[in-house]
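ARCHIVE CARD
SHELF: 3
SLOT: left
DATA:
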Amino acid sequence: MIAFLCGLVIQVDLGSCVVDVNGVGYLVAASTRTLAALPNPPEKARILIETVVREDAILLYGFSESAEREWFRLLTGVQGVGAKVALGILSALSAGELVAALSTADKASLMRAPGVGARLAERILTELRDKAGKMPGGSSGGFTVPVMATPVGSIEADALMALAGLGFRRMEAAPVVRRIMEASGPDATLDAVLRDSLKDLAR
């Protein structure tokens, strides 16, 4: 199995690149995030690799950092998430954003990725929510988001829905709303939480 490639990046295309290692050109599929991090051809680079062996092919998937490779492995373990969809998710969301989306049950953020519909997004949330805090970008990686779902019909859920209607992304608004809810305690009201959240988010 190939763990990484170190060679000249001689070509970068949409969704893949070619790495020349001692005269052998390896075609490596990658997220837009990894491809954007590569040097301009022809320059040397080191790319982490996940090797997938199929009956008809040996496929290489490249990553600029180990966190992205770990997320790729986790995502492709979900039924219905193939390598192409996993790379699409990793192109749309960083490791920290993935943790936030899973921890706050933010289905809309997952659906920004090509190939992820409502049903698949729900499956990803269901299967990976409890694992998010242990992944890179989670509590061990400096991006801490409590691993809990927002109860439907709660003040918190209503506030997040209202803020989304005003153009704020859920992963941006959720930590703010949760902090204000905790500070307000049992006396929290929807109007007060919304008002204080807007003040914080407008800074």
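SLOT: right
DATA:
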Amino acid sequence: MSITQISQPVTPGEPAPDFVLPAVDGSGTISLADYRGRTPLFLALFIGLWCPFCRRAIAQIAASESALKSAGVETLGVVATAPDNAQLYFQFRPTRLRLAADPELSTHQAYGVPRPIPTPEFLRALDTTLINPDGLFAEPLPITHAAEAIGKLDNYKYNETDQADMERQWPQLKGQFLIDRAGFVRWAYIECAADGLAGLGKFPSANELLAAARALAD
């Protein structure tokens, strides 16, 4: 199904919106200005840790971080939860990915990452649209069942912050942007842009990320 949404994302060729966010590791703030004029940046915008697809994608993108760095691109993930909640999670699930916290989704809004309108059609589609992100399951599952199944596989226990984040953020989508050293978006990947709700939980592959990074040098 097509998605009724209330924003349009920043597209390649446009200036990347500035941001200043607290670092999850407590080392101060992280801004786009830290990278401008110095290095290209792969910016991955996630929602809260309540999102099972985001938790999986953080691990996947972290695995690509060193290859991107070898291609001359730094990586930053933005997770939409309070720094202390993120610190608690990554204390038990360490990651090499540099992370900033944005519980209010200000960066998602600045970059125009769509937030679908939860129409009756949209809600019905959550229970009927089949997905299988990265071939994780033996067969595709309805979106709601897939989210529950990943939570069980991860043995993830929701806390009060997760619940508050979910109530405030759902059904915000995710997006990734490759920004050149001059501060312009050169490549973008928006969840569900190509496949509608059937694309929920899909993220760019390592090969896609590396191809986009190498194209900066062309």
